[in-house]
Amino acid sequence: MQSQPLRNVFAGPYVDRSSGLRKDAAWVEASLVDPGTRFVPVWQHRSLLRMLPEPAAVLLGRAAVAGVADFAAADTILLGRFEGAACFAVELDTAGPPTLAAGAEFADLRLAAGLLPAAEAGLLGYARAMVYWRQRHRYCGACGTVTVPQQAGHVMSCPRPGCGTEAFPRIDPAIIVLVTDGERALLGRQASWPAGRYSTIAGFVEPGESFEDAVVREVREETGVEVVEASYQSSQPWPFPSSLMIGFVARAGATAISHPDGELEDARWFTRDDLASGTPALPPPQSISFRLIAEWYQQASGRRLEDEPGARLWPLRR
Known about the structure:
It is a single chain. The protein is an alpha+beta fold. Helices cover about 20% and strands about 30% of the residues. The protein has seven helices and 17 strands.
């Protein structure tokens, strides 16, 4: 597979995952008390950031984490080595917002990721996804026993004799596709979205289904449009909560639109002139959805969609 010239937000070799060290209990124990180790706190699915003077992730030493909230080794998850230092995610399980240093805040990573350095966005996304997975595997799926973390937080194991079921981190693969007829792009909107915002067609891959088959099915189910050709473009980890978005560009056969499954409030064909003039409002610039649209726009126009003064980028520019 050819490498992409541009990595999507949350993607890339931002951390040495050091998977071989997850079973080294002595190394993990020593790292947890090492003053050089850094912790990525997650509170109610929010990430710790400092927005001024420039947006940046806030990584804490052990003493700083302990000053914010009580935690034990079992509450941590080894992420690997970040900038040469051992790095752990830690869930802060407090009802109210932890007390923070001036200028720091727990923020919605979905909105802030595009403002952060790429490596920091990836690290925070990884931490958020792992904490979410752990929260949903506190009990054995086979017998209901309380699970215990193993391998530095990457396995949740059932301790009940005769069971011993192990749960490993999972992701939900989803296709996301820009369908075109050459001169127009097919975009849809959900009723819950901000007024005027449209995006590419997306949906989860079902058991026994290939990515390509999912593209054809999802487009047909949501818009009634038949896809006759699809090609892979790029992928993006999307930790909201635990997806991997597999991006495609597809060519439509017949272009009549319907709404067979009722999932979308509306779907329409838009020209490049429509996009440049602000109809519709576009998805966030840090999303693979925007990349699919922007690259299609630039291929014919020779201009970057984000540079068009009339284009509406949600939520950073309206």
